[in-house]
Write a structure and sequence with these properties.
It is a single chain. This protein is an alpha+beta fold. It is built from three helices and five strands; from the N terminus they run βαβααβββ. It has a single domain (2-75), classed as Roll (Ubiquitin-like (UB roll)), CATH 3.10.20. 27% of the residues lie in helices and 27% in strands.
């Protein structure tokens, strides 16, 4: 299946882009996507636990099963004032 992955703030800086098309096997979960990204960028492993994840603009758990055409966003914690 093909999905679109969006990266924001420090996550975008680490990955090097704000948007990426990816191919995953049918039935893949958010956890599988994180593993694939971590295999390409080892420091993503350290960042992943603090990220919020949304699929099609709704927050999901890491065991959520992805579907072809989904849009996944990785959102790091934000602070400011």
């Amino acid at each position: 299946m093909n999905i679109k992955v969006l990266f924001f703030a420090s996550c975008r800086d680490l990955i090097g882009t704000g948007e990426r098309e990816m191919t995953l096997p049918d039935g893949a979960t958010i956890t599988a996507l994180i593993s694939k990204l971590a295999s390409e960028q080892a420091r993503f492993t350290d960042m992943a636990p603090s990220l919020m994840v949304s699929v099609n603009q709704a927050y999901v758990e890491r065991d959520a099963v992805l579907q072809d055409g989904d849009e996944v966003a990785f959102i790091p914690p934000v602070s400011g004032g």
